[in-house]
Amino acid sequence: GGCARRVEESLGLSGDQILYVGDHLFGDVHASKAMLRWRTALVLRDLESEVEALMGFAESEQALLELMHAKEGLERQIAELRLARHHDGPRDAELEHVRTALAELDDRIAPLAIAAGELSNSTWGLLMRAGVDKSLFARQMERYADVYTSRVSNLHAATPYALFRAFRAVLPHDPV
Predict the structure, then answer these.
(1) Which of 26, 37, 109, 138: disulfide with 134, CB 3.0–4.6 Å?
(2) Angle 58-88/46-56 helices, nearest 10 degrees?
(3) Phi/psi at 148 (5° precision)
């Protein structure tokens, strides 16, 4: 509702020299970035409960990752047995044994995967994740907000000249 040009004149700054802090992704952050070329910070209060939920689920998340790693091994065995069947003849008993082990493992994975999907909100899940990927909201936030935080007060120790950097993104082909 203010006059952006007057703010720039009063501060003697313009464009990316200004950090605009807002709590609405499109009304505040996107508009300021698109029209004024200001740097933008999004205040996202829901982030605190999401981080808390993720921290509370950390042990289960680790167990889920280990089970999924074991599942990948069993799936690889099934693929190899199916391929070997074409060269060496039937391997049905061995294949059935691995499939049974896989089904038992899936029974252990299912409750953890369901719990992971219901973190933070039982209907929608996490705000920033959609399964193993970023949510649409997270992608929009990355596109429009230069930084984000749950509270403006989290920036109290930063000077006006602070430089914020994101962690290196992990790509699907990166070794883990």
Answers:
(1) 138
(2) 60
(3) -145, 155
Q: Tell me, what amino acid is at 108?
A: R
For residue range 61-101, what is the model confidence (pLDDT) as tens digits?
999 999 999 999 999 999 999 998 887 777 889 999 999 99
**pTM recorded for the entire structure:** 0.74
Q: Determine whether 32 is exposed, middle or buried from the number of CB atoms within 10 Å of its CB (0-12, 13-18, 19+).
A: buried
Parallel/antiparallel/unpaired status of strands 129-130 and 19-22: unpaired
Give the dihedral of Cα atoms 43, 60, 112, 123; nearest 10 deg: -20
The Cα–Cα gap between 25 and 144 comes to: 7
Taking only the tens place, the pLDDT of each residue in 30-58 is 888 888 899 999 999 999 999 999 999 99
* Alpha carbons 145 and 29: distance in angstroms, whole number: 6
